[in-house]
Structures are given as C-alpha cells and as structure tokens.
Amino acid sequence: MRTARLRTVHPVLWAGWAALAAGAVLCVLGWYGVSGELYAERQLPYLASCTVPGAALIVAGAVLLTHGRGALAAARVEELYGLLVAAEPTGAEESGTAAGDAPLAVSGDLLMVPGGTLWHRADCPLVAGKVESIPVDAKLLASGELGPCPICEPVEETD
C-alpha cells in the first residue's frame, strides 16, 4: 500500500521542483532581456515570452509541491493507521470480548509528554518507553488543559 501511494506522490514532487526551477530561469532571462532595452515597446516581448510564463511556472510548481506534500502526509497517516489497526490483539476474539471494549493499557500511573495535550496510562503504546514522558501535573489536569488519550482511555483521578 505504501509503495503504490508513494510512487504516485514522488513524480508530483519532482514536477513541482522542475516547474519552480524552469520558472526561475525564465524570470531571470526575462529580467536580463528587459534590462538591456531602453524603450518599453522593446521590453514587452521579454515580458510576454519569459517573465509572465516564468511566474506562472513558479505558481504551478508551488501548487504541485503543496499537493505532493499533502498526499505524502496522507500516505503516512494511512500507513500509521494500518499499523495501529494491525496492532490489535488477536486474543480478544478468543476471550469473548470485543477489541474496542477493553483499553490497550491498564496501568494506574498517568504520564504526559511535555508540550502535549493528552494524558496517558504508563503502559500506553504512545508513551511506553519514551524517556521524555513525565508524570501528569495535577494543576494541568485540574485546569482541563490535558485531555484523555483515546488509545489507552485513562480514567481521570480525583484527589
């Protein structure tokens, strides 16, 4: 899945960079031609043949790069979603519980990542093994600045 999507994205990125480069070259040639002419009537052919198409190519290249980067980001999100879905435990069907009923993490300790907006259980796959994760500050939790992680579904502790 990933390679098929990336094969369609990379040509768009290359086309964007090529259009930007060609547009820049045309703008420089147009500027050089205009700068050598004294009269406006003689400058118009350079503007029409080089500068205007060069500016259009620069705009087209910027649009292609934006579209290509957006498609690349979408491909990465799809890949991560596929990994998350594939990480579903297979023992859930055998025990008789649905996979969506039980949280992935059951620890009572709450952690957060500095600058993050969610709190997690200590054994949540999103913070497990991360050295930068720290215990949740009670002030942040009480003020409502942190929300619960949708993956591990922690329960808010009231002290």
How would you describe what is shown here?
This protein is α+β, with helices and mostly antiparallel strands and 159 residues long. 15% of the residues are buried. The chain is elongated, with a radius of gyration of 27 Å. The longest helix has 47 residues, at 40-86. A hairpin with a 5-residue loop joins strand 1 and strand 2. It has helices at residues 2-35, 40-86, 91-95, 138-143, and strands at 110-112, 118-121, 134-135, 147-148. Mean pLDDT is 76; it is low at 95-99.
Descriptive labels:
159 residues; alpha+beta; 4 helices; 4 strands; 58% helix
Count of DSSP helices?
Answer: 4
N- to C-terminal distance: 47 Å
Beta percentage is 5-15%
Residue runs with pLDDT of under 50 for 5 or more positions: 95-99
The percentage helix is: 55-70%
Q: Compute the gyration radius: what is it?
A: 27 Å
**Sheet of most strands:** 4 strands, mixed
Query: Rough shape?
Result: elongated
Tell me briefly what this model is.
58% of the residues lie in helices and 7% in strands.
Q: Secondary-structure map with pairings?
A:
Elements: H1 2-35, H2 40-86, H3 91-95, E1 110-112, E2 118-121, E3 134-135, H4 138-143, E4 147-148
Parallel strand pairs: 2-4
Antiparallel strand pairs: 1-2, 1-3
